[in-house]
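Figure S7 source data.
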Amino acid sequence: MTATTKTAHEPETKRTFEVPKHPEWPILTEDEKEALKDRIKRLLKKENAVLVAHYYTDGDLQDLAEETGGCVADSLEMARFGSVQNAPTLVVAGVRFMGETAKILSPEKRILMPDLNATCSLDEGCPPDQFSAFCDAHPDRTVVVYANTSAAVKARADWMVTSSIALPIVTHLKDKGEKILWAPDKHLGHYIQSVTGADMLMWEGSCVVHEEFKSVALERVRKLHPDAAVLVHPESPAAVIDQADVVGSTTALIKAVTHMANKEFIVATDEGIFHKMNLLAPDKVLIEAPTAGHGATCESCGHCPWMAMNALQTLAATLETGANEVHIDPAIRERAVIPIQRMLDFAKRQAKLSKAS
Ligand code: SF4
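Tokens for the predicted iron/sulfur cluster complex:
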């Protein structure tokens, strides 16, 4: 076998988990919404809590996070921001691995989430026992896992990466002559392998949202909008990535919309990102990259069903009751912090280098 992409973990990873239907939240009047937001603001103050939200969550939650001194960000920045807060409570609006990462980095803090059932197909598709066996079978490889994994999977890893830092870290490991065991997103893994040429053995996981973007339909949309730039998150299939003008993390895609001269953008990632893009670049036209369509399956609507579990109602209830606290076995936490901290230290060194240059 040539030293490039290899896929050894064949899908007995056939889906072993249920993808939930999108929750249907009651429609609030503007007054009701404002009242709920005010209640949440008071509760955040009372609990001395900071709200950290992901770009894929509901726009109202993103606004609340920023209005109350928290942040809205990608998973790398969420981890970094949460770890340097003095507040004793962090409320993480996102999916479970984000809450777990916050707890791993700040074990002394209380970490709350609007809904602990909000998980991720990548996390669910990489059960720790099977992953551990995969690692045991390849002891010569450096284990690199994506942030979208459980604490127990991170505890088996040498490095954790997010989509915004995966390329430089894998390049760094390749330059050191290391062979990589990559998990769990096969699309992101294949993209990174194609750019870096690293020797990567892949786990066969995927994101149920990004996997739905359709390459043939995208070609048709590009023909209708020949001047539009195509922005693609690397969790998408290769045939979609191949058509991109920009491939990158949520932060990179938001930057592209604000910095590029194009007026139109076709965007292949969760539609939650449009909220921030519209705020920062209101004069740009954003077009959703095509999926099989809202009517096809629940997964093909371009919005993550687990991210959709985060709502003003669940956020208020969590702050009121203190329910949905994230707990992690201390023995797992002790090991899982190593790959995360390694990534954060690498990011810090990179930031220093780019400032100096
Ligand atoms: S959008 Fe995909 S990768 Fe992100 S949380 Fe949802 S299932 Fe996971």
